[in-house]
Amino acid sequence: MKLSPSPLYRVGKDEWTKIQNTRFHVTTGAHWRKPKQSINERGAKERFLKSKDEMAEKVDYSAWSNERLIARVSQLESELKSKNESLVIQQAPEKKSWKKPRTERVFDPSKYNTRHVAFKLAYLGKKYNGFEHHTGHGKPLPTIEEELWKALNKARLIFPKGTHPLQPGEVNWEGTDYSKCGRTDKGVSAFGQVISLRVRSNRPLAKRKEVPTSTNEADNDGLDMTGDVDMFNTLPRKNGIELGSPALAPSRQSPNRQRPSSLLIDDPDFAESLDFDPVADDLPYCSLLNRLLPPEIRILAWSPYPPVDFSARFSCRERRYKYFFTNPCFSPMPHNLDPECDGSSNKKMKDGYLDLEAMREAAKLFEGTHDFRNFCKVDPAKQITNFERRMFYTEIKEEDDGNPSLRWTSSGDFLGPGRAQTPYKTLSFNLHGSAFLWHQVRCMVAVLFLVGQGLEPPSIVSELLDVENNPCRPIYEMADDAPLVLWDCIFPKEGDADRKDAMHWVYVGDEAQKGDDKYGPSGLMDTVWGLWREKKIDEALAGTLLGLVQSQGSNPGEMTSKKNPSRSQRVFGGDNGPRLQGNYLPVMQKVRQDPVEVQNERYAQRKGFESSAEMKILGFRRMNIPVAQEAPETDVAAQATVSS
Question: Where is this region: Disordered (predicted)?
């Protein structure tokens, strides 16, 4: 639309140009409407108004008195508060619920019977900081005991005082008669770990009427419910009944041990408690705990009535371990590219391959009773002076786990001429012993690997076991923790030379009409299958990729390398790859630690004692460790048992 000047009003040329540049908005109704401003125009206007307000706010406060300044600050604070309150979004009022609020039922532990049981469990230790929990030692990874503690509390199988089932707090086994067989280290797994403790039972308590007694008469059981007695524990209940098997070691029982009170079978007060099946009628302990534990921790079996003298720690007479490894132990180089195959090396085995016969010869030297101070890590805090342990059985076995994608490792391109075919295998070092020192198994395996690689002769085992000539341990690296498994724990009867397990185990699914607990949905096999399949798919993918990469490109026999390749020795230690150590230094030539006696003495003095002997007496008393009680040699060995 073009506007022309009105004849009644004359304007100049500049004014007419200004009018023409003015924007008009004409509607169909001939009403004028203010044109919409662009974003830039609105922003400019807002910035102008804001700057105008800021100019108005710029006041010279230097001449103001203190009272006036305080009043001004108070005014600004009130204005700011009112602005913030106006910006708060008002929440919609909550809808009224006609449901009755749920109140948590008060748990009365005195109404429940308890019983002593044992559990056999398995766990994959890679995600955990070992089995045993240490109070005050904050670690990024949880321990197996912490997970057991939370599950037992959540299921109300134990009920420590002052804790909530969902937030049980710090691990404290007081009042549960808890004991454990092995204390596996960080990363170590177990397929036959055993614990024992007292748990809640569904067996009814006897409804016997109490007979008033004099105030001077003491209650033998110490569980008189009429007084202020702490019942937040799972210790034996008054008028409670539980079954127990005969003692494993009757000769070791104390003659002053309190005998259970006599019980009349026809006593009507105990009729309901006696008419109770200790397996079928009680709580489903295994399935209950498996629902609450992480999938890497599984309860495999339970013992409904362990021996009356049973302790998972002191009743165990044999512990069995397996350490898994492969052969080849790491990726080998083709024969023509390996600098060790130029004729300058006298090693029998090529890098990456293990001499299994030499390892078996060395492993047999461990059998018998020996001083293993050169095959462990000394812990001066325990002040151990006896390092003798008995190994019943040692063997290297082949495991049933072939992988066709690694067949190339047995070809002549990698082994070289004149070497026997060595197909890929998964193997394990099997070790049975009465008790073990700290990191003992991993140190033993590390030496076996050196023998298998041809870096040490089998006689190195005999040299390290000869503590008279070699009282100080050479400093060598122990094997990796992940392949180590506590395989089983054996509890034989006293005097059994064959060490046959005397425990009665009820495995998951063996009970009547409980097969679904093992093979049903979310059962034991279902969970373990999920763990296995996840790792198996990872293995299949990685194995296929390994075979694919090896098959690509030129034939290994046609490849060449640089003229002066690195000759750094690759040493296998049980982990996923070798360690580079430059020129290998034999074990007996390495730097040695101080004698055990010197380490114990130095630690005791650092803790404020005059000597190691004083620490054994005074220091252990502070930690409530009885030292005056003389225990059999087997018990002394068991006290130092750890799995590593």
Answer: 206-225, 242-264, 552-578
Mean pLDDT of 385-394: 95
User: Taking each helix axis from N to C terminus, what angle separates 440-452 and 356-364, rounded to the nearest 10 degrees?
Assistant: 140
**185 assigned to active site:** yes
Residue 307's SS3 state is strand
How far apart are the C-alpha atoms of 337 and 413, rounded to whole Å?
10
pLDDT at 6: 45
User: Parallel, antiparallel, or unpaired: how do β-strands 189-201 and 484-490 relate?
Assistant: parallel
Q: CB–CB of 279/304 below 8 Å?
A: yes
Q: What's the token pair of residue 136? A: 């005050």
- Tell me the residue length of the chain: 644
Please check whether residue 168 is in contact with residue 160, taking contact to mean a CB–CB distance below 8 angstroms. Answer: yes
User: Which region holds residue 617: left if phi is over 0, alpha if psi is between -120 and 50, else beta?
Assistant: alpha
CA dist., res. 550 & res. 444, Å (int): 34
Sign of CA dihedral 543, 545, 546, 552: positive
Cis omega before residue 35 (within 30°)? no
Cα 205 → chain centroid: 37
By C-alpha distance, which of 118, 122, 117 is closest to 486?
Answer: 122
CA angle in degrees (0–180, nearest 5) for 207-212-213: 120
CA distance 641 to 619: 20
DSSP per residue over 106-117, as a string? PP-GGGSEEEEE
Q: What is the pTM of this model?
A: 0.76
pLDDT, residue 639, reads 39
* Residue 369 CA neighbour count, 13 Å, CB half: 5
Distance CA 222, CA 235 (A): 10
| Residue found by looking up tokens 């990872």 in the block | 538
- Indicate the burial class of 286 (C-beta count within 10 angstroms; 0-12, 13-18, 19 or more): buried
Nearest Cα neighbor of 324 from 485, 449, 453 is: 485
Euclidean distance between the first and the last CA atom of the chain, given in angstroms as a whole number: 95
- pLDDT at residue 349 tops 80: no
Kindly name the residue from 177, 185, 351, 488 that is annotated as catalytic: 185
Two structure tokens written together for 193 = 């770990």
Structure token digits, residue 635: 């018990």
**Is residue 151's pLDDT more than 90?**
yes
The DSSP string of 146-198 is: HHHHHHHHHTTSS--TT-BTTB--S---TTTT-EES--B-TT-EEEEEEEEEE
